[in-house]
Write a structure and sequence with these properties.
Layout: E1 2-7, H1 12-24, E2 28-34, E3 54-58, H2 64-74, E4 78-81, H3 88-93, H4 96-116, E5 120-126, H5 151-170, E6 174-179, E7 181-183, H6 192-201, E8 206-209, E9 215-220, H7 221-234, E10 240-243, E11 248-250, H8 251-261, E12 269-272, H9 287-293, H10 301-314, H11 316-324, H12 327-339
Parallel strand pairs: 1-2, 1-4, 2-3, 4-5, 5-6, 6-10, 7-9, 8-12
Antiparallel strand pairs: 9-11
Helix pairs in contact: 1-7, 2-4, 4-5, 6-8
């Protein structure tokens, strides 16, 4: 049996990744280590909470004693580090938690993995470490310089460099993925696409930063999880793999598309003051992972948005509990049941 440590598994991408692994690898056993910050929601994993191949541990990846104990007890074969503070606006308000989790926490995991001889360490990063592109610039490649522009992206860039150092200095088999913007089920309501959908459902104004012409490359979370699975199994140690869908859209175009799919008026669009250091454009060149690992995105963007709108309509209790904070009560109740 393969033993996999997934950090941040109660979050958006992490919970989808755990669900993917349980489905695709019946002989794998997962330990999900999550601090359960505001973005960690155990309801994201309610459908697999009784699965004997998935154990939840509440804890901080920056807690060296806890991490070391877990590595000794479980004897992991693989590590997938998805734990991160990830909201740019929050990083602008207070960068400190981003340094603690994204930089220190990653180093704690790397050191534990080094001492235990892990077969593969997957660092899940972001295209934001590359900085911003101009409209006519070619997409980022794995060779693009790292030029982060927000405290969040700077903390992820620092973590990536620490991973590289552990590979070069200690020979730890680390692979790094840098993905474009994700969308899909279980994404926190504060994020861009969920905000559009939920505000439109309530006929509330939809805030759009600046002129709305900021461009992002969007990928469905299920496509991302398939890529992570491939990199974890077959990715070459020391390499970086960009994961993108060649699916660039302006923020304003996405708002208009969702409003059209929901039959809502464009008058809901409200332009607001741009945030500091707002990157103008991200675009990822995914040809390396496509050629090396035979990966291709499968979810059409418009179809994915339609399905996601339906998902949010059908999962109103989930997002209402997230917005009200009640989801934390569920987490506390489940955690008490595990430790009693």
């Amino acid at each position: 049996m393969v033993k996999l440590l997934v950090t941040g598994g109660a979050g958006f991408i992490g919970s989808n990744f755990i669900r993917h692994i349980l489905k695709e690898h019946p002989d794998w056993y997962i330990v999900n280590l999550d601090k359960l910050t505001y973005a960690g929601n155990l309801e994201n994993l309610k459908d697999v909470e009784d699965n004997p191949r998935c154990r939840f541990v509440r804890g901080d990846i920056a807690d060296r004693e806890l991490v070391d104990r877990l590595f000794r007890e479980e004897k992991f074969d693989l590590v997938a580090n998805l734990a991160a503070e990830s909201h740019v606006d929050r990083s602008i308000l207070d960068p400190a938690p981003f340094i603690e989790t994204n930089v220190k926490g990653t180093q704690v995991l790397l050191e534990a993995a080094r001492q235990r001889g892990i077969a593969k360490f997957l660092q899940v990063s972001t295209d934001e470490v590359y900085g911003s592109l101009q409209p006519d610039d070619p997409p980022f490649t794995e060779e693009s310089p790292i030029r982060p522009n927000s405290p969040y992206s700077a903390s992820k860039a620092a973590a990536d460099l620490m991973c590289r150092a552990y590979f070069v200095t200690y020979g730890l088999p680390v692979v790094i993925t840098r993905c474009s913007n994700n969308y899909g089920p279980y994404q926190h309501p504060e994020k861009f696409i969920p905000t559009i959908i939920l505000n439109a459902l309530a006929d509330k104004p939809i805030p759009v930063y600046g002129d709305g012409q900021n461009v992002r490359d969007w990928i469905h979370v299920e496509d991302h999880c398939r890529a992570l699975d491939l990199v974890l199994q077959k990715g070459q140690a020391g390499e970086v793999y960009n994961i993108g869908a060649n699916n660039e859209h302006t923020n304003l175009d996405i708002v208009k598309t969702i409003l059209r799919l929901m039959n809502k008026p464009a008058s809901l669009i409200t332009f607001v003051k741009d945030r500091p250091g707002h990157d103008r454009r991200y675009a990822i060149e995914p040809s390396k992972i496509e050629a090396a690992l035979s990966w291709q995105p499968q979810v059409d963007f418009t179809s994915g948005l339609k399905d996601l709108i339906t998902w949010y309509i059908e999962h109103r209790p989930w997002w209402e509990r997230v917005k009200s904070g009640e989801y934390r009560e569920y987490a506390e109740k489940w955690y008490r049941s595990l430790t009693s």
